[in-house]
Protein: Outer membrane protein beta-barrel domain-containing protein
Amino acid sequence: MKKWFFTPLALLLANIVSAQFNESPILNKQNEDKKLLNWGYFLGLNQYDFKIEYKENAQDILVSKSFGFNVGLIGEVRLNEFLDVRFEPGLHYGSRLMGFPGFDNERDAIREVKSTYINFPLLLKASTRRYGNFKPFLLGGVSTGLNLGSNEESLDDNSSGTFRMKKWVYNYEIGFGIDFYLEYFKFTPSIRGVFAITDELIPDNDPNSPWTGNIESLKTRGIFINFTFE
Structure:
């Protein structure tokens, strides 16, 4: 799957670089940024982590990260030459393995946390002037996400093998990228950090639980690598 994703992407990026950075590039889509409204979609990868704060000093809970995928839509409103407001609803799937210390068997020590977020970010995009067929930018804003795999309503907890999180999480997001103006569309690779500002943990029913009893708060951290087509 990774081969089919990265091979055409590498070829596309190679063509973009060779076409955009020659001495006299032909200007593509010269009126693209003059429209009040703009639409598109994105595909990408993510890697989720946890920031864990503890009540007392103890051996850390280990988090093993893996790559997931992103897909979604883009709606953009132009404010002026340099500023745009973007709404990017999307589906973000990721998985994390949590290793809890103090257990002798894998069944109790390991919890796989699968998360499927429906994310609703509202972002401000600040761009530079256009240089030939590319334009760098910074973006940042806030988002709320609905975690479809939270297990919030489950009556079972870690004593039964179920790790529970809250359905709704609130984040701030910051990132950067480059708009490339191709002949038929605008292509944008970007990197973004996502940081939860609310505690997502639902503690176990036992306040002295060996899994959640020492956790003060658990907040998602993530990196998104998105490829946008507009």
